Amino acid sequence: MPATIKLHRSKAPDDNCPHILVIDDDSRIRDLLARYLQEHGFRVTTAIDAATARATMRSLSFDLLILDVMMPHESGLDFARSLRRESQVPILMLTARAEPEQRIEGLEAGVDDYLTKPFEPRELLLRVSNVLRRGGSAPATGEVRMGNFVFHIGRGELKCGGETVRLTERERELLRYFAQRPGMPVSRHELARDDGENGGERAIDVQINRLRRKIEKDPANPVYLQTVRGKGYILYPE
């Protein structure tokens, strides 16, 4: 019988944030990974073994799996091989061994990347970022930079030189939406679809102009939040 699934959520979860499934039989590592990833803008679900992960994936979809190699009953490599017969969800493998043979075995099993224990938290974010980018998911990290401005995706907080820049709730939603899709055009229709305000796509143009006045040196000639003719808008963070 699969163990109880532990779902970690930040104080203000955003359903648009990438959802990561952490699979590790070590409760300390599971909790540390969940807490750290949440702090950097991700939703996280944890599982203690392959059986629990399978049960979870029958009811939830994920943008990335972080999978330990050494687990009871079914190893991470065996689980990856089995999963690849039916799913192409990106997999970041955690391992205590760095031998080339094991890495090759993992790549043959369909693993996208490896991270050797112990690891630096920043390296974890970078590898998660790279795997998500290759898989077409967003975001790369928990924050995006635009010149002197830094936007923390999870907190929805914009800062400039350490000072918080006031955002309306709609501006925060828009900036988070773009930050989760860096370099990807987003149509006006898509942005207006879930907007409860009146005005539809025309209202989006007004909101984008207001947001540009807060993040662009020259709002009339934007560097970061640009217009894509005939499509909508696109964010080019640094």
Please explain how this structure is put together.
- The chain has 238 residues and is α/β, with parallel strands linked by helices.
- The chain has 2 domains: 6-134, 3-Layer(aba) Sandwich (Rossmann fold); 143-235, Orthogonal Bundle (Arc Repressor Mutant, subunit A), CATH 1.10.10.10.
- Helices cover 36% and strands 22% of the residues.
- α3 (76-83) links the parallel β4 and β5.
- α3 runs parallel beside α4 and α6 (169-179) packs across α8.
- The longest helix has 16 residues, at 200-215.
- It is elongated and about 60 Å long.
Short description:
The chain is built from 8 helices and 13 strands.
Rg over CA atoms: 20 Å
Approximate helicity band: 25-40%
Largest sheet: 6 strands, mixed
Total count of domains? 2
What is the second-level CATH architecture of the largest domain?
3-Layer(aba) Sandwich
Helical region count? 8
Please outline the helices and strands.
Elements: E1 6-8, E2 19-23, H1 27-39, E3 43-47, H2 50-57, E4 64-68, H3 76-83, E5 91-95, H4 100-109, E6 113-116, H5 121-134, E7 143-146, E8 149-152, E9 157-160, E10 163-165, H6 169-179, E11 186-187, H7 188-193, H8 200-215, E12 225-228, E13 232-235
Parallel strand pairs: 2-3, 2-4, 4-5, 5-6
Antiparallel strand pairs: 1-3, 7-8, 8-9, 9-10, 11-13, 12-13
